[in-house]
Structures are given as C-alpha cells and as structure tokens.
Amino acid sequence: MARILLLFAHPVLENSRVHREFLNQIPRQEAITFHDLYETYPDFLIDVHKEKRLLLEHDFILFQFPFYWYSAPALLKHWMELVLEHGWAYGKKGTALSGKIWMNIITCGGSVEAYQPQGKNRHTVEEFCYPFEQSARLCNMNYRNPYVIYGTHRLDPEMIHREAINYRQLLLNLLTEKPVSLNTIQI
C-alpha cells in the first residue's frame, strides 16, 4: 500500500468551511499522515530534519492549501525553501525524493471561469502552478496536475460535503497505487 503525506498549510483554518470539512473526511489509516504546518510551526521555525524524515517515509507528497495571491501560503513556501535543499532534494547528489509523487490540493475562491485565458485571472490554476511543477521536476519527483476546488465562497454546505467526499475518494484511490521504493538517503 502506498503512503501519503498530507502537508497542510492554511493560516486561518477556522475561517475555512471547505478545508474543515475536508479534514473531517481524511481516512483514518496508518498509510496517511496528516501534517498541519501552521499548527506545528506557528513561529515558522521549521525542524528540517523531521520534515526530511517525513518525506522519506512517504510515496505521495500532497500539498494542501488555499490559493493565496496565485500561490501557496507563506509557511509552505518557507518550508520548501528550507527542506528541499540542494544536495538532498536536488542537484548532482540530491536524489532523496526521486520517484515520489508531488500533487497539490488547492481551494480557490474564484470560479473556474475566472481561471481561464479570457477570464479575470487570465491564466488557469495549472499555469499558476508551473513553479510547483518545476520544483517537483528539479527534485526528480513525478508531478501530477492539481486537484482544484473552485468557487469555495459560493458553495453551500451540501456542495462542500460532496466535494469533501470526492476528496476522500481521491485519497483512497491514491492508497491503492503501487508505492515507490524508499530511498536510503541520509538526512
């Protein structure tokens, strides 16, 4: 069975109807590790060795966050800057994450129509995610297109619940995929 690391970054979770419902739908299984970065590091003082160990123990690295200013919240970007180090995650000797799968789970307040070339934002969410895709490639990871929930401000409770069930099914489907071999990389 594959192992999933859910790296969750939401600076104001108490204001999020969608993410709170999603968190309630995470299957309670040993193969899924939920890791709330804002809960763990409210001071932004990241334990890099702990984070590297977590990455090494999992096959799927899922970055879950609300779309803030066309990107991820600050703590997740800070986490990437510190944890994905040259010589460990990328570079000539940086092979620790090779073959692992990177996927973003993103919520957007804007509609799918707003995230089109002719829409308000002039680009798709996938296009805004090119830096994540390139980061995954740099780390020799396999990048998957993001799982995106649009128009979160206009979703009623029933719609949110349906989206949360879809999210749960996504996680269960990933668990059944063939895991990658763990690297014997030192931290």
TrEMBL record:
InterPro entries: Flavodoxin_fold, Flavoprotein-like_sf, KefG/KefF
Keywords from the named record: Oxidoreductase
Keyword Membrane found: no
Pfam families tied to this protein: Flavodoxin_2
Domain Flavodoxin-like fold: 3-169
Listed PANTHER family: GLUTATHIONE-REGULATED POTASSIUM-EFFLUX SYSTEM ANCILLARY PROTEIN KEFG (PTHR47307)
Record's protein name: NAD(P)H-dependent oxidoreductase
Lineage: Bacteria, Pseudomonadati, Bacteroidota, Chitinophagia, Chitinophagales
